[in-house]
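Input (structure):
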């Protein structure tokens, strides 16, 4: 009976999450994640899921006793989904861009984390939800207010073609560090909660050990992973199958997620760092593509399950606190991120753009809130408040961010470009009928040389080609193929392009020498009847 119910639950989750996700994305012009959370709220144990079904005479999603309203089996699947989510987020992180703008982005992120944390914890104390600032409830609410949705922000910047702008790269670099800091703070808060279980006093020495272990594990694991990633990649290529490589790498993500949990940290830290370590390898995009299937199936389950934890009865009594908490969480980002940006070469317009880009909440917010609920730090009422904050911030952030980029430059002076080597552009012009054919030939030529080719846009107009430390961008525009790479790789790229151009020339010459179609058909028939195959 338990397995039957679990199968039916997954069927209901996958179908409703997909439907609501598409509805929100296409018609409400909101992130798909909001639709998936709403789907969980509707079919969850506190709504339709709590009603008895006629053919089984019991609810499909009965409310479970304790802190977790869903079954342990369903929550276990959601936990695996969170590992997939953070592992994929790590793979998609542009580590080189993060390091290039690390100073500016780090200061912006640090300011946003500190101010948001203080505001989030402070409002919990002022409203009587926590006894003191060091109460685990206050600390967790402060932690929840620090998270930023990297995916939502990146999508908006991509649509507005502002990814490479000074504000865009600062926002993304800051958002990455923002979530990392939030995950580390979460590990510390969970440790404090364990120490104070049963009414004990906070042992600051142990707290310092937890904080040091969390930060030390993340830093050491990240450095080790980045240094070892090239060797790991070479070993994985021995499988000679991209599908096999993706399976093994996902196994490594699960292994390090479990190792992170054994070290006293959250599983998502190990999963994120595993992805981050492999993000700069040449197979990063290929791994993302291979994980699309499991990502598309499991991640909606995670957000739908998070939506199921919203208790409407308890949320009704916490609406005012939820609105106040959402307001201070947003204000904390505006002040905490905007002020450092003003002192780092941005004007008021640029500082506001950066602050607006740090407003959206998303994946990490739900993960932190879910861990807080499952560990008993917060109640379902405060979890519902976290969901309300995610909705409020994610709904108002996109229009604010889009409108903020209207106008002039956001910098007082041009920020220094820290790229040490200039980029070279190789442009090739072809007739319209030959252009796409040549693009496909070039992609295949690079694949034959063991490069990984990733189409950034679905129509294939922009591709990233990678092999170890070689990165090439192929763009198709205005009848031209443009290849962009570092100066040190220019000769290699020109050689590959020259070989393909010469082969194309030979092919065209052979076509010109061919006979007319009618004559070709006549000769072919003659050969068939005479048996001459020469």
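Output (sequence):
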């Amino acid at each position: 009976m338990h397995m039957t119910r679990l199968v039916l639950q997954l069927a209901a989750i996958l179908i409703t999450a997909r439907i609501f996700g598409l509805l929100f994305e296409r018609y409400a012009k909101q992130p798909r994640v909001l639709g998936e959370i709403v789907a969980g709220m509707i079919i969850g144990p506190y709504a339709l899921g709590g009603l008895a079904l006629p053919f089984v005479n019991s609810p499909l999603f009965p409310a479970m006793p304790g802190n977790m309203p869903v079954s342990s089996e369903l929550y276990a699947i959601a936990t695996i989904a969170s590992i997939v989510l953070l592992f994929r987020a790590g793979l998609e992180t542009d580590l080189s861009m993060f390091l290039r703008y690390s100073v500016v982005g780090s200061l912006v992120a640090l300011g946003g984390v500190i101010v948001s944390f203080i505001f989030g914890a402070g409002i919990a104390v002022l409203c009587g939800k926590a006894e003191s600032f060091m109460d685990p409830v206050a600390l967790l609410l402060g932690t929840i207010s620090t998270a930023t949705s990297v995916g939502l922000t990146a999508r908006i910047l991509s649509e507005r073609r502002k990814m490479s702008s000074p504000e865009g790269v600062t926002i993304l670099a800051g958002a990455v560090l923002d979530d990392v800091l939030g995950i580390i703070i979460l590990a510390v808060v969970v440790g404090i909660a364990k120490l104070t279980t049963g009414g004990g006093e906070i042992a600051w020495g142990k707290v310092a050990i937890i904080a040091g272990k969390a930060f030390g594990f993340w830093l050491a694991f990240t450095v080790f992973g980045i240094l070892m990633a090239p060797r790991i990649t070479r070993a994985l290529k021995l499988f000679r199958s991209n599908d096999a490589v993706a399976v093994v790498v996902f196994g490594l993500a699960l292994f390090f997620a479990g190792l992170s949990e054994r070290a006293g940290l959250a599983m998502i830290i190990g999963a994120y760092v595993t992805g981050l370590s492999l993000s700069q390898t040449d197979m990063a995009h290929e791994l993302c593509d291979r994980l699309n299937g499991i990502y598309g199936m499991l991640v909606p389950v995670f957000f739908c399950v998070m939506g199921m934890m919203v208790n409407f009865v308890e949320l009704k009594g916490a609406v005012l606190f939820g609105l106040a908490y959402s307001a201070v969480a947003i204000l904390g980002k505006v002040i905490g991120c905007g002020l450092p940006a003003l002192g780092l070469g941005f004007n008021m317009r640029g500082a506001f753009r950066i602050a607006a880009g740090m407003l959206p909440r998303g994946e990490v917010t739900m993960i932190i809130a879910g861990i807080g609920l499952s560990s008993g730090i917060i109640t379902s009422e405060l979890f519902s408040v976290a969901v309300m904050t995610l909705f409020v911030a994610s709904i108002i952030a996109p229009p604010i961010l889009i409108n903020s980029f209207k106008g002039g430059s956001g910098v007082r002076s041009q920020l220094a470009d820290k790229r040490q080597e200039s980029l070279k552009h190789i442009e090739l012009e072809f007739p319209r009928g030959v252009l796409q054919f040549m693009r496909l030939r070039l992609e295949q030529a690079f694949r034959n040389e063991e490069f990984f080719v990733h189409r950034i846009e679905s129509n294939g107009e922009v591709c990233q080609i990678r092999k170890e430390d070689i990165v090439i961008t192929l763009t198709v525009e205005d009848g031209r193929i443009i290849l962009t790479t570092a100066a040190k790789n220019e000769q290699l790229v020109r050689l590959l392009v020259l070989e393909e151009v010469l082969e194309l020339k030979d092919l065209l010459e052979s076509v010109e020498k061919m006979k007319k179609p009618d004559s070709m058909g006549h000769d072919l028939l003659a050969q068939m009847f005479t048996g001459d195959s020469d």
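Notes: The beta strands are 52-53, 58-59, 423-429, 452-455, 462-467, 470-477, 480-486. The chain has two domains: 15-404, 426-519.
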